[in-house]
Specification:
thioredoxin-disulfide reductase (NADPH) activity; FAD/NAD(P)-binding domain; about 325 residues; 7-stranded mixed beta sheet; about 30% strand; 5-stranded parallel beta sheet; alpha/beta; flavoprotein; Ferredoxin-NADP_redctase_2; redox-active center; 19 strands; elongated
Length: about 325
């Protein structure tokens, strides 16, 4: 079984790379399945990151992930750019098999899933074009860049209201757009927003298109769902808060997930319902979804996997 890896890590965001750094330093030479198109996770599509400790002047998202990758490789991680399409586990040998796009297979004694989650998109013209130039999916990441500017938040749940409240500290105004006249958000969140003089509401409305120029987003075109009429709202920042989808569809039911697809772990550990399989980052965390919290969880996953491997070898 010399061709069996000690650990395979699926995912290359802060959680995956941090796990690789710890395991590499521990002598386990992990294999990282980094993804075919966007290795580095969501941060590769982020501009300046100002809240990651150790960078008082900030750091560009792609640079941060490149630093993490190089650090993982320095300590022995083997990184391949491909996508995992399925996993399985042999009950007799406890060996876990990861199948990649194209059919390549890798066997491992332990597996860390750090595949993150994807922001749900509006799917309207201008959204992709102005992503990172006015369109954002993370208020705590990008709110500071819109100080003194008009901001739009799209959504009607707690996340949307939390983002609107947070962004009201920076923007000259915040307009929350929701497709219905009622909200999924909790009563206290709604009342807090209604009492905030900087937050306005445009209800029974959907975003039709996002307009901008070389400087970024300039306005949002919305359509009234009851009358069909369209109008334009000036905005330099558009924050989309309509939810996340964890990247866990390839798991084939091998580990327990909640009804929305997030992987369930045991208490404060990263252990999943299946021995030898651990999970970290945004595929587990539906609450915080920050680079630093994902990195911390990646550390825990590495230590949990190391303890599992050490125990199995004893």
């Amino acid at each position: 079984m010399s061709d069996v890896h000690d650990v395979v890590i699926i995912g290359s965001g802060p959680a995956g790379y941090t796990a690789a750094i710890y395991l590499g330093r521990g002598g386990f030479k992990p294999l990282v399945v980094a993804g075919a198109l966007t290795p580095g996770g969501q941060l590769v599509n982020t501009t300046e990151v100002e809240n990651f400790p150790g960078f008082p002047d900030g750091i560009m998202g792609p640079d941060l992930m490149d630093n993490m990758r190089r650090q993982a490789e320095k300590y022995g991680a083997d990184i391949i750019q491909n996508d995992a399409v399925s996993i399985s586990r042999d009950e007799a040998s406890d060996i876990i098999t990861v199948v990649l796009d194209g059919g390549e297979r890798h066997d491992a004694r332990a597996l860390i899933i750090a595949t993150g989650s994807d922001y749900r998109k509006l799917g309207v013209p201008g959204e992709a074009e102005y992503a990172g130039r006015g369109v954002s999916y993370c208020a705590t990441c990008d709110g500071f860049f819109f100080r003194g500017k008009p901001i739009v938040v799209v959504g009607g749940g707690d996340s949307a209201f939390e983002e609107a409240d947070f962004l009201s500290r920076f923007g000259s105004s915040v307009t929350l757009i929701h497709r219905r006249s009622t909200f999924r958000a909790s009563h206290i969140m709604v009342e807090r927003a209604r009492s905030n003089p900087k937050i306005d509401f445009v209800l029974d409305a959907v975003v039709q298109e996002i307009h901008g120029d070389n400087d970024g987003v300039q306005e949002v075109e919305v359509r009234d769902t009851t009358t069909g009429k369209t109008s334009v709202i000036p905005a330099n920042g558009v924050f989309v808060a309509i939810g996340h989808t964890p990247t866990t569809g390839f798991l084939n039911g091998l580990v327990r997930t909640d009804k929305t697809g997030y992987i369930e772990v045991e208490g404060a550990s990263t252990r999943t319902s299946t021995p030898g399989i651990f999970a970290a980052g945004d595929c587990v965390d539906s609450v915080y979804r920050q680079a630093i919290s994902a990195a911390g969880m990646g550390c825990r996953a590495a230590l949990d996997a190391q303890a599992y491997l050490t125990s199995a070898a004893a």
